[in-house]
Amino acid sequence: MKRPDLCAFAAALLLSACSTAHVEPLHQDDPDFSLPAAEAGLTTITTRADIEALPANTRGVTAGDHGSRELTDSDIEALLRLKQLERVHLRHCGGIGNSAVRALAQLSRLRELDLSGCKAVTDAGILALKECPSLRTILLNHCPKVTKPAVKELERALPRADIVWSSAEAPMGGPPDYQPK
Prior knowledge:
Layout: E1 43-44, H1 48-52, E2 60-62, H2 73-77, E3 87-89, H3 98-104, E4 112-114, H4 123-127, E5 137-141, H5 148-157, E6 162-166
Parallel strand pairs: 1-2, 2-3, 3-4, 4-5, 5-6
């Protein structure tokens, strides 16, 4: 007998307090998206000056939990001098587009990229990430110009990466490939 899919819309399931559940421990490099950006070991950047002030050994940056309206493609290109950069969270940065994504794809150590809510990013931008084999986590929620076929192509090119994508209209907690009728 087939069991009904009871958790089709679950966004997170926390089992740490459940003594009978077998829960694999997180690897120290696994992202913890439950923490606010400042507590996740990421340095906050909201302006070009913030980027220019970063030390060369910076490993993670974020535009904060609500993004930055000031950051542009050319500002993000300035991150290329940070050769140790592994984690970049740019959610809700309206000035970020394909040029920024193409620049980020040049970061050889990039493991984690969050572009959720970056409405100017298109299929052409995310397909540049195919050249970044170190990526393990890519978040593309609420990117209205990114399509399912492009995400599928990216998944084929980066089979070790976890890619999370939803259309701009997906309800919070809805399935990642939700398409409105």
